[in-house]
Amino acid sequence: GRAGAVAAVDLGATSGRVIIGHVGRDTLHLDHVARFANGPVRLASGLHWDLTGLLAHALDGLAQAVHAESAIASVGIDSWAVDYVLMRGDRMLGEPFHYRDDRTAGGVEAVHAVAGFDELYTRNGLQFLAFNTLYQLAADRRDGHLDVADTALLVPDALAFQLTGSRVTERTNASTTGLLRVADAQWDTELMARLQLPAGLFPDLVDPGTSLGTLRPALAEQVGAALEVVTVGSHDTASAVVAIPMADPETSAYISCGTWGLVGLELDKPVTTDAARLANVTNEGGVDGRVRFLHNVMGLWLLSESVRQWERDSGQAIDLPTLLADAAEVPAASVAVFDANDPVFLAPGDMPGRIAHWYRSHDLPVPATRAAFARAIVESLAEAFARTVRTVAELAGREVDTIHVVGGGALNTLLCQRTADRAGLTVLAGPVEATALGNVLVQARAHGWLGRDATLEDMRALVSRTTAPRRYSPRA
Ligand code: LFR
Questions:
Q1: Which residues form a coiled coil (predicted)?
Q2: 80 CB under 6 A from ligand 1?
Q3: What span, in angstroms and rounded, lies between the C-alpha atoms of 236 and 77?
Q4: 284 CA: nearest ligand 1 atom
Q5: pLDDT score, position 1
Q6: Which of 286-318 are b and which e, b meaning 16 or more Cβ less than 10 Å from the residue's Cβ?
Q7: Which of 56, 217, 336, 374 suits a disulfide with 327, CB 3.0-4.6 Å?
Q8: Of 392, 363, 173, 219, which Cα lies nearest the Cα of 297?
Q9: What confidence score (pLDDT) does residue 2 get?
């Protein structure tokens, strides 16, 4: 069958990458061509993206990709959700805020004074997260930024605009703004009016797999090819879910585990019952209109941010595999579980200090060594994962027998095993690169390489044939 090559630009919490995907009916293979830093920048105004720097790195990476593989047909961009750049005409009004900036507390109050969480949940189906776009926009409105902006572009859409000049809003990412109706995945213009957000602030919605045209001529020259830009599940989690090799979504749960642990199910229809709202479970929009019924658990952020603090303290690099091997030797029963969902862990900074404070304020012993800390983090994540799988299954009325773990967390054997143990369910770990795979698969389908009517199930079957998951059986 026909196969071809596409490029993925994936912007994650610590790095951005440019990856080539070779995709066809029997082919699915990634080549990593470029990696660059993507940490938040602390400007005087708060925590920001460096979107301009990322654009330059992405262009360099695409030039390298074209150099390595001249037949690249298109590029797709994904990143984390909710963040956006304000524009006036073609001009960016400053670097976008990073969602871990704490300016949104006032935004939450302002929004809830107009529409309470119960009402919001029936309209948009989203779990409460203080950084959701609508709260960030309320903070911007308070600070006067919306007086000069005419458009807001979600981050992957903002990069696509820089590349092509096309202004769109990709639908899976739009579903995380709080401004999309869960019932029909269209803009909630009535809510926007009540929140005094300008009508048409976000451009028209498009689905994954839509062509946005080719690179602007100057950029095509720089990259060495007039690449087409194609939308993908531009919310990284939406792309990751595309590539989860679920044999049967009815009996499978998943954990997209990187910086965050997104724990949930794929559904055909949203569940916005009182019980789902009280459990704070979200209904985000997936590729092909599927629903990502999930809850955000803090994820490996707890570990990576702890490691960063210990490295700052000691001035020495910490080897993560060694730390995790030491953690595996610490008896599970010797560490207490903490609440991995506590919002005190959201902001960057001294993570071991905040975890120690959590233990002390709950009258529980603070882990005595770094290995014990790491073990406590793994146990607490595994417990939150297992509990959340039970919750989402119960809320959706499903019998789950398998948990798929994808993303970087699939490499963490201790976490996978302890999740299996605490859930009493089989864990299938991998692929690690689910997000990039989902990105390139959706582009390949748009090009007709998988058959135009290829379904998510067809794409997942291809993932199954080309990557072997690692199995963890629950232990007593
Ligand atoms: C994961 C993710 C989550 C979203 C969080 C913030 O990278 O996209 O799905 O809730 O980041 O945007």
A1: none
A2: yes
A3: 9
A4: 9
A5: 57
A6: bbbebbbbbbbbbbbbbbbbbbbbbeeeeeeee
A7: 374
A8: 392
A9: 76
Residue 169: C-alpha distances to residues 4, 68, 82, 85, 134 (Å)? 27, 31, 12, 12, 15
* Backbone φ and ψ of 181, nearest 5°: -75, 130
CB of residue 192 inside a 6 A radius of ligand 1? no
What count of other Cβ atoms lies within 10 Å of the Cβ of residue 1?
9
Active site residue 236: yes
Contact 171, 207 (CB under 8 A): yes
pLDDT means over runs of 10, the chain (476 residues) = 90 96 96 96 96 98 97 98 98 97 93 98 98 97 96 98 98 98 98 95 98 98 98 98 96 98 98 98 98 98 98 96 98 97 95 98 98 98 98 98 98 98 98 98 97 93 96 95
Other residues' Cβ atoms within 10 Å of the Cβ of residue 24: 16
Contact between 284 and 290 under an 8 Å Cβ cutoff? The reply is no
From 147, 236, 268, 274, the catalytic residue? 236
Ligand 1 center–CA 260 separation, angstroms: 7
Q: Complex ipTM, two decimals?
A: 0.97
| Tokens linked to 184 | 């029909």
| pLDDT for the residue 105 | 86
User: What gap in Å lies between CA 444 and CA 22, rounded to an integer?
Assistant: 9
Q: Is 369 left (phi over 0), alpha (psi -120 to 50) or beta?
A: beta
CA dihedral (193, 198, 199, 203) in degrees, to 10, reads: -140
Q: Rounded to 5 degrees, what angle do the CA atoms 100, 105, 110 make?
A: 135
